[in-house]
Amino acid sequence: MLSKMKMVIFWAVIAYPATWFLQVVFKIPIFNEYKEILGLFYTAFYSWWDWMLIALFSYLVTRDIINIKYETMEKIRSTRLVTEMERWIETPYIPPIMAYYLINPPQAVSTDIRIVVDNRFYQRVITFFRDRIYINASFSSLDPLERDSNIKNIGYKDLATLIAAFSFVLGWFGAITLTDPSKWVYGWERFSIPLVLYLSLYTSMKLQAIMEMRYSKLDKVLTKHFGEAEPHYRWREFFPDQPKGEILLLAWRAECEKRQRYTNMLHGGHMEVQQYTNPALAPYPYPSQELPHWIDELDNYYADKMDLMANSEPKTIPLKKKNKQQNNVVNFKRK
User: Fold this and answer.
1) What is the pLDDT of residues 153-200, one digit of tens each?
2) Which of 259, 268, 278, 304 is the least crowded, having the fewest Cβ atoms under 10 Å away?
3) Could you tell me the CA-to-CA distances from 111 to 7, 54, 67 in Å, in that order?
4) Pair 260, 113: CB distance under 8 Å
5) How high is the pLDDT of residue 330?
């Protein structure tokens, strides 16, 4: 819009001497008519300059407001990935949300191709996966921890900002409207319209993002894909010699190829991918192309641990009189 306005002003300035020259040469009153048109525009601008200014500023502050929603969704998605990994860290199972992302590489929330090619969320997912997949880790539980609240994923700072913006808009708009609504048209308060409009849309975009990123919507996606919201897949099932590992590699290759094609298209290059140059591409999903030597030990450990946890029952230890010769020392023995 601003570029179009600049073009209009530019040609309006050029037309002034051009119409004068045409009138002098061809004896047609085109210059006089052009001055009359400029006079009408001047009168309109003089009468409505305030609303023109309000409209211009309103456009400038709200033209990219949708990015508030996209950025909020990206932030919540990134935070939620970390919290889900922490939930499942004491189990032998891969977090369901990571399993879903590995098979269905996540795209940027925005559809802007420039944002799509630079989005690093999938790269982060693969990096987390690489850091964990070839670790022969023990586990102490078969069930994950309780989920963090949606509020924690949103972030207390963002939530406070949202509440402050909503409170200001509601208070300011209500105070003026209840006092004298005509101030929005004739009073100096009308110049606050761009700010009120921005904060109203800001609040709306934030709320839309929060609603889109609720756990209930995530559970529906996981249930539709896996048949349940929290499937228990072992990390071993995502090794490259397993069916899910093979699907992971196919998805990774397809995502890298598509991302590079979009990068080439954005920079006016060939659609055929010859080199992978986009720094936002995810690395190879595994630390090594060779399987670790302790795979059999991992399977045996898992089976033994499952038997131990299945057969273990809580035992009641009777209290004993303390021997006078015993010191006041408690022997903590890790089971």
Assistant:
1) 999 999 999 999 999 999 999 999 998 989 888 888 999 999 999 999
2) 268
3) 29, 30, 11
4) no
5) 38
- 230 contacts 96 by C-beta, under 8 angstroms: yes
Q: Could you tell me if 106 and 121 are in contact, meaning their C-beta atoms sit under 8 angstroms apart? A: yes
Residue 117 CB: number of other CB atoms within 10 A?
21
Angstrom CA distances, 44 to 16, 36, 47, 93, 309, stand at: 19, 12, 5, 69, 82
Q: Can you spell out the DSSP letters for 225-264? A: HHSSSS---BGGGGSTTSHHHHHHHHHHHHHHHHHHHHHH
Q: Per 3-state DSSP, what percentage of the chain is helix, strand, and coil (rounded to 5)?
A: 65, 0, 35
Residue 128's CB is within 10 A of a number of other CB atoms, namely: 16
Can you read off the two tokens belonging to residue 30? 């085109």
Spell out the long-range contacts of 247-251 with Cβ–Cβ below 8 A and sequence spacing 24 or more. Answer: 247/103, 248/102, 248/103, 248/285, 249/285, 251/102, 251/103, 251/104, 251/105
Displacement of CA 224 from its chain's centroid (Å): 22
Question: What is the C-alpha R_g of the chain?
Answer: 32
Q: What pLDDT shows up at residue 239?
A: 95
Neighbours of 238 (CB within 10 A): 24
pLDDT at 328: 39
Residues 6+ apart with CB under 8 A from 206: 68, 69, 72, 158, 162, 165
The pLDDT, as a whole number, for residue 309 is 79
For tokens 């100096």, the residue is 188
* Residue type for position 276: Y
Question: Which residues in the chain come in under a pLDDT of 70?
Answer: 1-3, 5, 312-335
pLDDT at 312: 67
Question: 248: buried, middle or exposed (CB in 10 Å: 19+, 13-18, 0-12)?
Answer: buried
- Average model confidence (pLDDT) across the chain: 86
pLDDT at 70: 97
Q: Which residues contact 209 (CB under 8 A, 6 or more apart)?
A: 68, 69, 70, 72, 73, 76
